[in-house]
Fold this sequence. Notes:
The structure holds 2 protein chains of 2 kinds.
Chain A: E1 4-7, E2 10-13, E3 19-25, E4 31-38, E5 42-51, E6 54-57, E7 64-66, E8 76-78, E9 87-94, E10 103-105, E11 109-113
Parallel strand pairs in A: 2-11
Antiparallel strand pairs in A: 1-3, 3-8, 4-5, 4-9, 5-6, 7-8, 9-10, 9-11
Chain B: E1 3-5, E2 10-14, E3 19-21, E4 24-26, E5 32-38, E6 44-50, E7 56-58, E8 64-68, E9 73-78, E10 87-94, E11 102-103, E12 107-112
Parallel strand pairs in B: 2-12
Antiparallel strand pairs in B: 1-4, 3-9, 5-6, 5-10, 7-8, 8-9, 10-11, 10-12
Amino acid sequence: NAGVTQTPKFQVLKTGQSMTLQCAQDMNHEYMSWYRQDPGMGLRLIHYSVGAGITDQGEVPNGYNVSRSTTEDFPLRLLSAAPSQTSVYFCASSSPDRVGNTIYFGEGSWLTVV
Amino acid sequence: AQSVTQPDIHITVSEGASLELRCNYSYGATPYLFWYVQSPGQGLQLLLKYFSGDTLVQGIKGFEAEFKRSQSSFNLRKPSVHWSDAAEYFCAVGSGGSYIPTFGRGTSLIVHP
């Protein structure tokens, strides 16, 4: 039972480089989202998707791009990495049920931009 | 818009002592409420959730939380803390119309032996 799988777990980028964080879920969840976690800031929503072909911005979308071509995958692209994007990134998926949208998280991707 | 406040950034307790972590939310209707725990270097694990019914919710690892509508609170409690409970705890609020819950900034729990 894989759940939510994120890759890579660790990455170091140079300023200006681009990269893609991969996220896949095998629970057939409609909703997927990306958060970043910074000390003292909790989890802040970057982008989210409520189904294949549908994405929307969260609280801190600038500098990031997403697409949702399949139900399973929700990659996060950093277009031109900046030191301010050094953070821990979490992908999550959920599905509406009678107890609300319980979110299942990946294990995180630690990104350092130098 | 919904919001969550966790007023305590850090909480320090002795092993075996009781614990209460505070969470206050802002939302017009009946919310869905969650507590997640994050151990160092790990992802987030759901401890418990509330959506309706009994206002006292039991979760995993001996945790419980009580929904108090009059106080807009959903505080997390544990009667006796273990050293392995040291972690970051996040409260989150959602709604029937909100696809993605909103998270608080977290409370870091430190457990002294």
